[in-house]
């Protein structure tokens, strides 16, 4: 790192566990970009001040993680892409001469990974999404944008799934979007993809958030969790012979999209991100 380098970072709470600083700093090094990326633990009531600091100090870009992806919308100037506006959450901010532009690369990262690792093309497909938090919102809107035929949201807290289904239906009336009170209420038709967008599976001893006996036939299965590399949910699916993938590919793809927004670099970025992540999860 040289003097006068550009500064990037991540706002979160907690944020110490984040792999993003290692990932982006490795890529800055690999591409010879004079920049540094730091983790900023932001107090739960201090996000506004953090964004003021970003403007005042000329921090070039930040990522947002739990719990700030939705609240951050209050502090930026513009969401330039239609595709990001319907998500209701952002994970990337670009500072262009003091004006803050918000983007959401989670959903696009998910689609890239699901296409690449599971050969999944969302058009005309039926998808069950487990969870109704920020990640489920990003995944659900990306699937609807990519013309999935039907989306079912199943969440521990039904009202949250209902709220998300109603919100997305407002943007995508042509997609069938419903909240499920119980997996037993899944319609008797083939589901093409099951996505775990809950945080259930991250902690040792967590059960699976879904019982695959409720499915008709086989489905591809994507777990957004990447640590542990194989949750009980993913293990169950693999044992049943379903094609499976964990969230590492999505993590690499969404980070690569942020990197591209900040630096304009595209070629080989996602591959290098994935290689870096695999090396640190070994
Ligand atoms: N691979 C990637 O690049 C990537 C990107 C983004 C997120 N993620 C992962 O996605 C997961 C969700 O993130 P998020 O931002 O959506 O978090 P969030 O907004 O806090 O939402 C958490 C979701 O998980 C559900 N949940 C939590 N504990 C549960 C349990 N024990 N049983 C059943 N459901 C449970 C919650 O249900 P309630 O509504 O009932 O509380 C909620 O739907 C995390 O594991 C995160 O690391 C991965």
Description:
With 282 residues, the chain is of the alpha/beta class. It folds into two domains: 6-104 and 249-281, Rossmann fold; 107-245, 3-Layer(aba) Sandwich (Rossmann fold). Helix content is 37%, strand content 19%. It has nine helices and eleven strands. Helix 5 (134-145) links the parallel strand 6 (126-130) and strand 7 (150-154). NADP nicotinamide-adenine-dinucleotide phosphate is lined by residues 66, 106, 131-136, 155-157, 160, 197-200, 202, 209, 224-226, 247, 250-251, 254.
User: What is the percent of helical residues?
Assistant: 25-40%
User: How many strand segments?
Assistant: 11
- Reading off the top of the CATH hierarchy, the class of the largest domain is best stated as Alpha Beta
Mean pLDDT: 95
How do the SSEs run, as a string of H and E?
A: EHEHEHEEHEHEHEEEHEHH
Which hetero ligands occur in this complex? NADP nicotinamide-adenine-dinucleotide phosphate
Q: Based on CA inertia axes, which overall geometry fits?
A: globular
Tell me about the biggest sheet? 6 strands, parallel
End-to-end separation: 27 Å
Level-2 CATH architecture of the largest domain? 3-Layer(aba) Sandwich
Radius of gyration from the CA trace?
A: 19 Å
């Amino acid at each position: 790192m040289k003097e006068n380098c550009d500064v990037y970072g991540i706002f979160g709470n907690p944020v110490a566990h984040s792999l993003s600083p290692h990932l982006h700093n490795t890529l800055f090094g690999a591409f010879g970009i004079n920049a540094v990326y730091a983790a900023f633990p932001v107090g739960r009531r201090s996000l506004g001040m953090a964004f003021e600091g970003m403007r005042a100090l000329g921090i070039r870009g930040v990522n947002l993680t739990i719990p700030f992806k939705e609240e951050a919308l209050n502090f930026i100037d513009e969401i330039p892409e239609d595709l990001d506006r319907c998500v209701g959450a952002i994970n990337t901010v670009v500072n262009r001469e003091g004006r803050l532009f918000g983007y959401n690369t989670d959903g696009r990262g998910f689609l890239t990974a699901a296409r690449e690792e599971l050969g999944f093309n969302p058009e005309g497909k039926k998808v069950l999404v487990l969870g109704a938090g920020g990640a489920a919102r990003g995944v659900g809107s990306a699937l609807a944008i990519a013309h999935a035929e039907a989306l079912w949201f199943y969440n521990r807290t039904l009202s949250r799934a209902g709220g998300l289904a109603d919100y997305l239906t407002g943007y995508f009336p042509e997609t069938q979007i419903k909240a499920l009170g119980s997996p037993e209420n899944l319609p008797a038709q083939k589901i093409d993809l099951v996505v775990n967008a809950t945080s259930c599976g991250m902690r040792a001893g967590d059960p699976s958030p879904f019982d695959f006996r409720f499915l008709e036939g086989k489905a591809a299965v994507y777990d957004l969790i990447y640590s542990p590399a194989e949750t009980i949910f993913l293990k169950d699916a693999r044992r049943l012979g379903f094609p499976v993938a964990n969230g590492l590919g999505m993590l690499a793809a969404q980070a690569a999209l942020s990197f591209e927004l900040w630096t304009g670099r595209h070629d080989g970025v996602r591959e290098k991100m994935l290689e870096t992540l695999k090396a640190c999860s070994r």
